[in-house]
Write a structure and sequence with these properties.
Blueprint lengths: L5 E11 L4 E6 L10 E6 L2 E13 L2 E6 L5 H5 L5 E5 L20 E4 L3 E12 L2 E8 L2 E6 L5 E5 L4 E4 L9
Parallel strand pairs: 7-12
Antiparallel strand pairs: 1-2, 1-6, 2-5, 3-4, 3-6, 4-5, 7-8, 8-9, 9-10, 11-12
Length: about 170
């Protein structure tokens, strides 16, 4: 599976027990009841791993993969990112987007025109921020009203309205 066709859901934090189970640190809410496998990044490639069993306790997910039956084999997965295909993500409402979908989108301000391309979407507490370069300096724009007024996935454009002086900060 190509990495561009997948999205990251977390990573393998550590081994759990002696029979190959691992503990996952999740960045996305996932119902493992609906999946038979995940992709684990190894040496830059995504490798499918089939799920034998899983359990979750609070914010921790414990998972057992087929053919990983010792602590030593599980240790080899430690720190590896876990992915699912983008096609299994729930459809979002009109105007909403997943963070990885908008990388490379052009940001256009209603008054100033084109500002630049989104290089990253980051989080600052509960707030999501669009990151872009404008005149050689990094700009962070909150992903909420009144800043973001629309997004067009087909045209790869996000329209914003920035307050006077916002880009001078």
């Amino acid at each position: 599976m190509e990495k561009e066709k997948c999205f990251k859901i977390g990573y393998v934090a550590k081994t759990h027990g002696l029979k190959g189970e691992v503990t996952l640190n999740m960045s996305e809410d996932v119902d493992f009841n609906t999946f038979k496998s995940v992709f684990i990044e190894q040496q830059g490639s995504l490798v499918p791993y089939f799920i034998s069993s899983f359990s979750d306790r609070g914010d921790k997910v414990f998972i057992k993969f087929d053919d990983i039956d010792t602590s030593e084999k599980a240790t080899l997965l430690k720190g590896s990112s876990i992915f699912l295909p983008k096609e299994v993500r729930p459809k979002l409402k009109r105007g909403e987007f997943y963070d990885d979908e908008v990388i490379g989108f052009t940001v256009i301000d209603e008054n100033l025109g084109e500002l630049g391309e989104i290089t990253e979407v980051s989080s600052a507490g509960p707030n999501r921020l669009l990151t872009l370069l404008f005149n050689g300096k990094e700009v962070l724009i909150p992903v909420n009203s009144p800043f973001v007024i629309s997004s067009n996935k087909t045209k790869k454009i996000i329209k914003v309205v920035l307050p006077d002086g916002f880009l001078d900060i």
